Amino acid sequence: MIVLSYLCSMKQFALVTGASSGIGLQFARTLARAYHYNIVLVSNQEHELSVAAKAIEEDYGVQTRTICLNLAESNAANQVYDFCQKEGIEVEVLINDAGMLIFNPLLRTPEAKIETMLMLHMVTLTKLCQLFAQDMVKRQKGYILNMSSMTAWMTMPGIQCYNATKGYVLSFSRAFWYEMHREHVHVLAVTPGSTDTGLLPFTPGFAKLLRIAGITMPPEKLVSRALKVLFMTHRKRCMPGAWNYIIVPIINHLPDWVVFAAMKKLKM
Predict the structure, then answer these.
(1) How many Cα atoms occupy the beta-carbon half-sphere of 149 within 13 Å?
(2) Cα 24–28–74 angle (5° rounding)?
(3) What is the pTM for the complete model shown?
(4) Half-sphere exposure (CA, 13 Å, Cβ side) for 89?
(5) DSSP code of 92?
(6) pLDDT tens-digit readout, 251-260
(7) Which residues does 149 contact at the CB level (< 8 Å), separation at least 6?
(8) Residue 184: phi, psi to the nearest 5?
(9) Which of 52, 91, 267, 268 is least surrounded, with the fewest CB atoms within 10 Å of its CB?
């Protein structure tokens, strides 16, 4: 047991935000299973966080640490970094996955929700990159993966703030890639389309049809592809799913009357 504990302590850590469920949890599990990283799981869902951490330790024999925190707070990034410093945790992989989706016209969206999204998707993500990249540069090794979205290229009513913040993540990550490239730190923006996490409002039958057609991707497949690109290439961006390369330009070239008709149907 002492030897096993020592060997585990020698492994590097990967830190995953939004790690208590969905894509974030899949990142945490895959990093532990396939890449043998110890995992720092960050989320504001305390019970789910504890359950996920325990399962990862039992299933894959790695160490886990949990940070239950609202990442939309102004000093959240500093709290995460300070925790790792106090615990002596060297973060070799940073996965910024925590996010939220608001589907509502801007004028009918509470200010607090808008501020939460802006903080979560842009401010905290940027600060986490800055804080942990400093240590990665000192070690001349590190990996940073920021979750954007294929909607970063779209102007879609109803998710106007989501589009804009994911556009920021994409632009920021690509620019940061250049700054970190010579420092041997790989920065990657992932721009997925529809992912089968059960959170989208699809009927079971329609969700199955999307999976069969390859339009909706299982989170396991998305995460596997994203991590292969992160660890095995020097690419700036990854958009898993061939359909997404077709869907994005089609949506961007829809006539205005089609968009207005969709808004009317959605009662926007």
Answers:
(1) 24
(2) 55
(3) 0.86
(4) 24
(5) E
(6) 766 676 566 6
(7) 162, 163, 166, 169, 191, 192, 193
(8) 65, 35
(9) 267
